[in-house]
Amino acid sequence: MNESLNQSVSPSLSAHLIELRLWRQFVAVAEELHFGHAATRLHMTQPPLTQAIAQLEKLLGMRLFDRTKRSVQLTATGQALLPAVLDLLARAQALPAQARAAAAGEVGRLRLAFVSTVGFALLPQWVRAFRALYPKVQLELLEATGDVQLQGLERGDMDAGFMLHAPGFAPSGLARWLITQEPLVLALPEHHSLANRPALALNEVLAEPLVIFPRRIVPSLYDAIFALYHAAACLPVVAQEAIQMQTIVNLVSAGLGVAWVPDSVRQFQRSGVVYREVLAGKNVSGRNVGAMPGCETSLVWKHEGVSPTLERFVAFAKSQLA
């Protein structure tokens, strides 16, 4: 039998194609293969159901059922359509639960930037734990320096970031939650004359050529390091600038100079480099120098437009620190 009704679907009628009521009625008749039984299942009388199926067939421009006085059978088109309709109704039924999960931050997307020092240990552990708790959150990770993170947060390309900075850093327009505090240590080539000492005095290293990141990357930490030299009445000799901590350590290994790095960088197992604590003590003129600078890592995000998924991750971060 030709299943086409040879009728075009008008624009005014096509809007009804998305109504789930018609699809539910189609499924009931398809499964019962009896209009009376299907009507009882749908808590309605038979005539409106018969009219609804006729309307659906008219909208589609083809027959879904072959009817006789004694039987109702699905056409080939109806049989082919049934699995897709069942899937549609199942997904529609799941929407309220998905909406509740989205509102609770249990599904969605989170674009998370991080500095390389977080990637050594903390980030892998947190990502594994967060994904175990919220497997339906799509977590997108992007390694980025502080300046790139600030730009990404401002543009809305990133939702949050782990940012390295000097103590007391207060980013304008951003919320901040302190993650870690750690001292700066000095990375030296392993064959350096001071490398065999367990700890060093500041005045012993002030004249060493310095490998350091550009100021634009982490201005607060760059300034804290330079302030240390200025307090010691000394101007650092910058031998080379590099962006990534791994690159800085590699340059130290190559003998280009020494570098002030977060203590967590020790986990970057690079041959040819040793890490030593430096004690403030006195400068080259015999004057006492203040405490050695440290560094902090914070989770930062914009105050406005916080998604439920980001709220969930911030709560997760706080629970990990607790």
Written account of the structure:
The protein is of the alpha/beta class. The chain folds into three domains: 11-103, Arc Repressor Mutant, subunit A (Orthogonal Bundle), CATH 1.10.10; 108-170 and 300-321, Periplasmic binding protein-like II (D-Maltodextrin-Binding Protein, domain 2, 3-Layer(aba) Sandwich); 179-296, D-Maltodextrin-Binding Protein, domain 2 (3-Layer(aba) Sandwich). The protein is built from eleven helices and twelve strands. It has helices at 11-14, 20-32, 35-41, 46-60, 76-103, 122-133, 146-155, 202-205, 219-231, 245-253, 308-321, and strands spanning 65-67, 72-74, 108-114, 137-143, 160-165, 174-189, 199-201, 210-212, 238-241, 259-262, 273-279, 294-302. Strands 3, 4, 5, 6, 7, 10, 11 and 12 form an eight-stranded mixed β-sheet that branches. Strand 1 and strand 2 form a beta hairpin. Helix 2 (20-32) crosses helix 5. The longest helix is centred in the first third of the chain and has 28 residues, at 76-103. The protein is rod-shaped and about 105 Å long.
